[in-house]
Amino acid sequence: MCGRYQFTAEQWGEIRQIVQEIQRRYGNDAWQPGEIRPTAMAPVLLAGGPELMRWGYQLPNTLVINARAETAGEKPLFRESVAMRRCVIPSTGFYEWDREKRKHLFRLPGEQVLYMAGVYELREGERRYCILTTEANPSMAPIHHRMPLVLRREQVESWLLEPKAASVLLHTVPPELDVTSAEAQFSLW
Fold this sequence. Notes:
By secondary structure, the chain is an alpha+beta fold. The protein has helices spanning 14-26, 79-84, 153-161, 163-169, and strands at 5-7, 34-36, 41-46, 49-55, 57-59, 62-64, 66-68, 86-91, 93-97, 103-107, 114-123, 126-135, 146-148, 150-151, 178-181.
């Protein structure tokens, strides 16, 4: 599952390019980097470049923020989006809480950006996205049984533009991740 992630602007390279494009298109005040929560506006990558979208499909009585990659193409809520409206959610890491409610940050080793596969839809004039999840890999399994469908940089274009490749990516095991405690560290000394 993915219920929160980070997009920090102090990163350079790819993240900086995304931030600059979002600011150019929407203005400096349209979005603030940091910890991204459901219903927040955040950068999402489409084939034509980054866009701002709101996280979560708003249904009458619930907010859907994740979709199971294994079955999303079969579900009425996601079927059309998987076929025609795929997106990539750039981040600098995502958070997950363990059974003791301790917060952990997951990042892709050696990379500035962690890309998550997603889908989007247009509802009431607003684009909204969901993050696709899959079974946890060994780096995630001790914390949670689900995780975002993490894409490597070289898979991003295929996910966005190639339906057959995207179909295969829905069933891939995400790369191993680095995990660190995201809890505040306090010392009495």
